[in-house]
Amino acid sequence: MAVDTGGRERLLLAGERLMAERGPDAPLRDIAAAAGQRNNSAVHYHFGSREGLIVAIVERRQDAMDRARTAMLADLSTTGGGDDRLTALVEVLVAPMFTVPYEQGSTHYARFLDRVRMHPEVSTARNLDHWPATRMLVSKLYDSLTHLSGRERAERLSATSSALFALIADHESRAAVSPSGTPQPSQATITAMTVGMLGYPAISTPLGKGAASPDVVATTPELRFGIAEF
């Protein structure tokens, strides 16, 4: 019996859209109907559960973004990133989020991610070992924040991820309302804001105290998903 790959693809897109609009508890029967599936159990057939669908959406986008970051990091290793390495790293972080999902046909991924990223299944979806470019990017970002203690680096990365998801979700919403215009904030603005959040001077612990290694940061649950979804 042939596998209905088209049906699976439609379920991924429908699940992404409806969860972006209604949250991760959007009825599975509505997702199946939006995907043109007459069988209300279509999600369970293809993904095993609601959680399986959520993880499949995340992994599909993240796999492609990791490939994009691999190429960007290779270019960065050649050029060195110029005088402002933090900005160069943040561009590797942000740019794929503005391009990859939409090249794959998404219309709602940023809003989906903003709604589901704290879901228990998502926060432990996969270890960064599965996404080597993103893991390397986390480490390089951590190392670039030399003005911060280890504890504040971890806090800054976590808080910045939350703000970044919200900003890109807002950008996506505005683009949907006015597709012919120039939605605000733009990619350049969001990149600059992210650099500002990460590069802001230390506000608490003196440099060197409470240090955490890059591996600790990369595998801390609240960072693992937050940064992975970059």
Overview features:
70% helix; disordered C terminus; 12 helices; Arc Repressor Mutant, subunit A
Summarize it.
The chain is elongated, with a radius of gyration of 19 Å. The chain has twelve helices and no strands. 70% of the residues lie in helices and 0% in strands.
Can you walk me through this structure?
The chain is an all-alpha fold. It has 12 helices and no strands. It folds into 2 domains: 1-48, Arc Repressor Mutant, subunit A; 56-199. The chain has helices spanning 5-22, 28-34, 42-47, 50-79, 85-103, 109-116, 120-123, 132-144, 150-177, 187-199, 214-219, 221-228. The longest helix has 30 residues, at 50-79. It is elongated and about 55 Å long. The termini are far apart. Mean pLDDT is 83; it is low at 206-210 and 216-229.
